[in-house]
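stage 2 :: seqdesign
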């Protein structure tokens, strides 16, 4: 039985899910990871990397097939509406699927997380026509999706983007550049944030759906980056791209609000699940290695300092998993899910960086060797504290909410601080020590 089942089963009544369904999805995810031999293939994918040739992006050999196998097994359809071919199950199970894939391959796991975000955004803001057109192929894994918010000159401060979308005779004409786009050039469907009404500032941004192959859309380059080396992370260029007006997502002028909501939901919980998956593999490797390796005539796990590291990793993993599953459950059942998503993202990404680093340390010189996965995990998870909104931005979002809503500190319960939000009498659970409240000016 997968370790995740007890974390989700705890919420099964709230999610109106029977335990068999939970375990079926977890088992199916694990079966597909095994069947596609993803653990063994991950280092090969990284060695080969994606390619940009004649304007076309291809994944490392065999990687696309893995993504498609997940689709055939129905895994992208987990939380999609039945009407469009989805299974209508909670998003929580999709985040668990993301964790399970990420344990095997960080690059592929991130692609799975982003696919979930695109599905989530279209479900939240799409018109019936857009849902009918784009959801079925995304849910089946016949098409893949990317989100395009970041630009060379604006990431955290999305209100500062410069890509424009000028309306003219039934079309929005898009000009600009997007950077750091996960699965950019490989994906078929893109959610794009652009400035439609420059004079309206933050209220002058809108989101669009566009498809690869549209005239004027091109891939300028793939980033050479630290970690996630099997992932195509692209700089995309938009040169007078004519997007039909029916591809405006939601209302004109609500793009920034939608982006923030989209990021808060699928994207941040997805990144938290992804980081937890990589960290879990690192933890298992640390346990195995420290039980096999000997020094000074004893197993290294028997040195108190190594033992303590393993115990700390175990605790961090438990908190990270609890936090992202809790955020996903709140997203599924109602409540302040965007703050919960920031808490989960902040904790799980920082914990992921710490756990993978300690695994590398426990491996000694072998932690630096490419013969072991330890060093890859360190590199792959590093993006977690940056992509989908940095740790600093998450901390700002959480502390602002606490101040604005006069949340009161109730005390500590095990490893969690409890904070009461007077709105709806909601209790936030925040990992102990995650935030330096005094620094951020929040009274405890
Ligand atoms: C591998 C990878 C994949 C990605 N995938 C995608 C994707 O698919 N789609 C997409 O749109 N984007 C993607 N991103 C981009 C990512 O979301 C941005 O890098 C991130 O939001 C940070 O923006 P930035 O890089 O412009 O940094 P900046 O915003 O320039 O931030 C620089 C530093 O300043 C800090 N900072 C900024 N503002 C504040 C503030 N108000 N208070 C305190 N500190 C602040 C930040 O925390 C950071 O430490 C990806 C990034 C990476 C690395």
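stage 2 :: out
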């Amino acid at each position: 039985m997968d370790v995740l089942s007890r974390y989700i089963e705890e919420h099964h009544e709230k999610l109106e899910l029977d335990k068999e369904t939970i375990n079926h999805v977890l088992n199916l995810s694990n079966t597909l990871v095994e069947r596609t031999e993803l653990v063994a293939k991950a280092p090969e994918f990284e060695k080969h990397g994606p390619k940009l040739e004649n304007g076309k992006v291809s994944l490392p050999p065999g990687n696309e097939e893995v993504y498609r196998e997940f689709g055939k097994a129905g895994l992208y359809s987990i939380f999609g509406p039945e009407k469009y071919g989805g299974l209508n199950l909670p998003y929580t199970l999709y985040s668990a699927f993301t964790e399970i894939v990420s344990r095997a391959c960080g690059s592929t796991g991130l692609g799975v997380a982003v696919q979930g975000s695109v599905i989530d955004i279209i479900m939240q803001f799409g018109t019936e026509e857009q849902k009918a057109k784009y959801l079925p192929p995304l849910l089946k894994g016949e098409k893949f999706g990317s989100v395009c918010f970041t630009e060379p000159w604006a990431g955290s401060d999305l209100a500062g983007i410069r890509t424009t979308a000028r309306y003219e005779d039934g079309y929005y004409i898009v000009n600009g550049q997007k950077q750091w786009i996960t699965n950019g050039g490989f994906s078929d469907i893109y959610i794009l944030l652009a400035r439609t009404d420059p004079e309206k500032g933050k209220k002058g941004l809108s989101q669009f759906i566009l498809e690869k192959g549209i005239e004027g859309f091109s891939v300028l380059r793939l980033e050479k980056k630290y970690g996630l080396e099997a992932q195509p992370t692209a700089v995309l260029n938009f040169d007078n791209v004519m997007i039909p007006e029916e591809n405006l997502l939601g209302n004109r002028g609500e793009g920034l609000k939608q982006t923030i909501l989209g990021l808060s939901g699928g994207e941040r919980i997805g990144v938290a699940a992804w980081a937890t998956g990589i960290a879990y593999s690192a933890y298992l490797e640390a346990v195995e290695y420290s039980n096999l390796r000997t020094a000074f005539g004893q197993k290294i796990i028997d040195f108190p300092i190594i033992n303590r590291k393993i115990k700390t990793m175990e605790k961090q993993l438990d908190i990270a998993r609890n936090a992202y599953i809790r955020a996903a459950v709140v997203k599924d059942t109602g409540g302040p899910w965007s703050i919960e998503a920031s808490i989960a993202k902040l904790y799980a990404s920082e914990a992921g960086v710490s756990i993978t680093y300690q695994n590398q340390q426990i491996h000694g010189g072998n932690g630096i060797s490419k013969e072991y996965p330890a060093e890859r995990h360190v590199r792959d998870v590093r993006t977690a504290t940056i992509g989908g909104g940095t740790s600093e931005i998450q901390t700002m979002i959480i502390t602002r909410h606490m101040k604005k809503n006069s949340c009161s500190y109730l005390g500590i319960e095990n490893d969690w601080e409890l904070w009461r939000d007077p709105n709806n009498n909601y209790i936030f659970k925040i990992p102990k020590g995650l935030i330096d409240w005094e620094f951020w000016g929040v009274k405890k």
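stage 3 :: structure notes
- The mean pLDDT is 97.
- Residues 53 and 170 are 33 Å apart (CA to CA).
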